[in-house]
Amino acid sequence: xxxxxxxxxxxxxxxxxxxxxxxxxxxxxxxxxxxxxxxxxxxxxxxxxxxxxxxxxxxxxxxxxxxxxxxxxxxxxxxxxxxxxxxxxxxxxxxxxxxxxxxxxxxxxxxxxxxxxxxxxxxxxxxxxxxxxxxxxxxxxxxxxxxxxxxxxxxxxxxxxxxxxxxxxxxxxxxxxxxxxxxxxxxxxxxxxxxxxxxxxxxxxxxxxxxxxxxxxxxxxxxxxxxxxxxxxxxxxxxxxxxxxxxxxxxxxxxxxxxxxxxxxxxxxxxxxxxxxxxxxxxxxxxxxxxxxxxxxxxxxxxxxxxxxxxxxxxxxxxxxxxxxxxxxxxxxxxxxxxxxxxxxxxxxxxxxxxxxxxxxxxxxxxxxxxxxxxxxxxxxxxxxxxxxxxxxxxxxxxxxxxxxxxxxxxxxxxxxxxxxxxxxxxxxxxxxxxxxxxxxxxxxxxxxxxxxxxxxxxxxxxxx
Length: 465
Description:
The chain is mainly β. The protein folds into 2 domains: about 30-140, Immunoglobulin-like (Sandwich); about 145-430, Pectate Lyase C-like, CATH 2.160.20. Helices cover about 5% and strands about 45% of the residues. It contains 1 helix and 40 strands. The strands form 5 sheets. The protein has a 26-stranded parallel sheet that branches. The longest helix is centred in the N-terminal third of the chain and has 20 residues, at about 1-20. It starts with a helix and ends in a 37-residue tail after the last strand.
């Protein structure tokens, strides 16, 4: 009996040993990674190399053969890999024993002086086995900058412009906190990084390219630097108040400016002065029962340039809202929509609407829109929407408005529009019907900071010089 039991144990051990030495070939085989992303969080101020490691585990009870471990960027990548002692961008037919693991050593070498180097350098490692493909993401800081990862502003904070800021995760300005951004500051946002303002945001830009304050995606390499929707945008939340943005450029966002919450009287919670909002995949300005004033602002080439819904308090003076179909966006929505109700986050929002538009241009072309201004009153709430001295492209004049001195369906004659090269210059040509057609609105400069006459100014954000 003992002899038979011993033989059975020996046989079981041999079967187990054979099984451990055989290969699992099923697509249901599993592998594990010690990390799904290898992140190099050192700021590179000079050329250098840093190495990190990641482990691949074989949790199966048989050997597993990795058909390929490949650096997707190949020899041109900023990253280098070494698979269990074998260097090179690709290694094939790598065996891992049952219950065992192997190391991939990853190094990155970055020269921050390289032209057009992204702020965040990315690549990935492809791991293929048994017809399956999985990836390990690689990310590293590129250019020298201030990197803020899921940062919360809790007091009165003043930035400087000596280095750009790169926002990862999110940037939150808490209620009762204030963030002040000086002229010439550049802020770059990673793909998942919004700016959430529950307190106050002050942007003190200037009229020159070098003194404007830029909010945009951290992808600076073409064609990504032209993609709309490359980062979420700026959200002014319900407790936010006293915001003032001067000479800000906000571009390539999903929703560039979102203003939420009931207005508190006639003092706008967000004041935009000489701002440029461009190339938003969804909204350039989205007001949800909000409160906003825009002076000398250009809102261009967005899915919805300006959408104001659910009521609120809004003033637009000397603004240009224009949109054209191009390689990245198709112009299918009006450049201005005003309504006393809107569905937002699966909730129907309604409220009193007060909106005033003076000396503005609302224009679009190369798309499917015939009425570039659409106004809708659906509730019994108070509703007052007025247009004075505006130029618009409208076939059916919206009924629930008051208007005066409107120039309808006359081309404003912008300086240069080239949809194929994405070049847009919204200054006015000589002979534009918008020249001298404005009323006195108290705005004595234009978007460039040039003087604007007190009487009979041009329509739109630029005064013809």
